[in-house]
Design goal:
heterodimer, A: mainly alpha, 8 helices, B: globular, binds adenosine-5'-triphosphate, binds magnesium ion
Chain lengths: 211, 251
């Protein structure tokens, strides 16, 4: 029993690592991708667009398998499962975040940029002090949805053998002839997402002082 | 009289469409110029070129003695050194206010003073409060734009522009988004500024107001100045001007 709890704790830590590492890299990278999709340089726009289409148009499971096995078939070397899993998640989630950022950036009235220009703000100042705060407020709800999806998607890491919580739970279930480990895992995802949605609700309320 | 604005032979196209064709005019210091004309005649484009939101194709523009661009071989060549300097001398009030929704009224009026002119907090705040007082909005300083009426928002945006001490202030249909009651509020403010000898150029459809405050007026149509001078309100010489003015009297 004690060893089962230890195993499940380890699985939980792995799931949380996937979750936080994905956010750490894909939240900023999504911005770069959004900029790429909004640039006036056509080839960059086309490539970014194709990348987003592929990421959104194919299953994450498939992308995980691709990022795990492709280096082996192409270069004859492989890297560890966990790294492959993070790469796949980051590449996938950057595309989704990029689309959210893009819609947020485009929703900002042109008049905000023009007023900033006429008042003499520099471009970086306009971006960080005028545009970004408004974008963040606008995208909070869609960002919340995406992060909640990510919590559940971490379970897909087992496809390439990463011992995240759900895989540990499944293995334990078949060994012990009991569904309790899976049930416990379910509670974890639920609690995790409860926390995530509370946090986003707080953030949205904090930004509610203006319209 | 010294010239605040000296514009010669300005031209501007969007793609194939010529929007401004060879326009010239001057604005003296302390003068109020009103610009009237039908929709699409190029009024906004002209203001946007002087306030550097658009770039000129050809022509020469001098603002308060500094040249922004000059015509060289049929092309407007900009003086990069002067772009920022002139930008600080010109202010623009928009039809749609364009206040920053995430800043309080006070911060809307303080932000550029702090970030652009690098004024200290106390100085910027004192200046902002004085301007808000002048606009009758002292008690609204801590509110956010969405809590104000359109007329109040427009007055904040005027205060925001004035906070940088521009040499000339441009208005692009400042009352077109407002109902008659609120329009009067704004016209009152502009009139008060005119009495203080603030140099201004106002695009407007308020003919009576324009006639009352203007030292000079231009009527634009199809990207050209058809007629110039305040007499165009009471005694238009050109047929096109006459028809345009008459269309307002019928209202
Ligand atoms: N960014 C742009 N791209 C293409 N065409 C433009 C652009 N801005 C303005 N135009 C065109 O230029 C012409 C003049 O527009 P402008 O906005 O200067 O007119 P206006 O006199 O201000 O009209 P209104 O009274 O409706 O505001 C119009 O035909 C308009 O469609
Ligand atoms: Mg216009």
């Amino acid at each position: 029993m004690a060893s089962l709890i230890m195993q499940m704790l380890e699985g939980t830590v792995t799931s949380l690592r996937i979750f936080f590492l994905t956010l750490l890299f894909s939240l900023p990278l999504g911005f770069v991708v959004a900029k790429g999709k909004m640039t006036s340089i056509r080839p960059i726009r086309w490539i970014t667009d194709l990348y987003i289409q592929i990421m959104r148009g194919t299953p994450l499971i498939l992308q995980l398998i691709f990022f795990y096995f492709a280096p082996f078939y192409i270069f004859g070397t492989s890297y560890d499962r966990f790294t492959a899993c993070i790469v796949a998640f980051v590449v996938n989630y950057s595309a989704y975040f990029a689309e959210i950022y893009r819609s947020g950036l485009q929703s900002i009235d042109r008049g905000q940029h023009e007023a900033s220009k006429v008042l003499g703000f520099t471009k970086p100042y306009t971006f960080f002090h005028i545009v970004l705060p408004q974008v963040i407020k606008k995208i909070m709800p869609s960002l919340g949805n995406e992060v909640i999806t990510l919590v559940k998607d971490t379970a897909l890491a087992q496809t390439i053998g990463v011992a995240e919580l759900f895989r540990v739970a499944q293995t334990a279930s078949s060994r012990e002839f009991s569904t309790i480990p899976i049930f416990i895992a379910g509670i974890f995802y639920f609690v995790m997402n409860y926390i995530v949605s509370r946090l986003f609700a707080v953030a949205e309320r904090k930004l509610d002082y203006y319209r | 009289m010294e010239k605040m604005i000296n514009l010669e032979n300005l031209s501007k196209s969007f793609g194939e469409t010529k929007v401004i064709r060879n326009i010239s005019f001057t604005i003296d210091k302390g003068e109020v110029l009103s610009i009237i004309g039908p929709s699409g005649s190029g009024k906004s484009t002209m203001l946007r070129i002087i306030t550097q939101l658009e770039r000129a194709d050809d022509g020469t523009l001098t603002v308060d003695g500094d040249t922004l661009f000059r015509s060289v071989d049929g092309k407007a060549v900009y003086d990069r050194e002067n772009e920022r300097k002139i930008g600080l001398k010109t202010g623009l009030v928009f039809q749609s206010f364009n206040l920053f929704p995430h800043f309080s009224v006070l911060r809307n009026v303080m932000e550029a003073q702090r970030a652009v002119l690098k004024r200290g907090k106390d100085e910027a705040e004192a200046k902002a409060m004085a301007l808000l007082r002048k606009m009758g909005l002292e008690d609204k300083a801590r509110m956010y734009p969405f809590q104000l009426s359109g007329g109040q928002q427009q007055r904040v945006s005027i205060a925001r522009a004035l906070a940088l001490d521009p040499k000339i202030l441009f208005f692009d249909e400042p009352t077109s988004a407002l109902d008659p009651e609120l329009t009067r509020e704004i016209l009152h403010v502009i009139r008060a500024l005119a009495e203080e000898k603030m140099t201004m150029a106002v695009v407007t459809h308020e003919m009576h107001f324009a006639k009352a405050i203007s030292d000079n007026a231009i009527f634009m149509d199809g990207g050209v100045i058809v007629e110039e001078g305040t007499s165009l309100f009471s005694d238009p010489k050109e047929e096109r001007t006459r028809r345009f003015i008459a269309s307002f009297e019928n209202e």
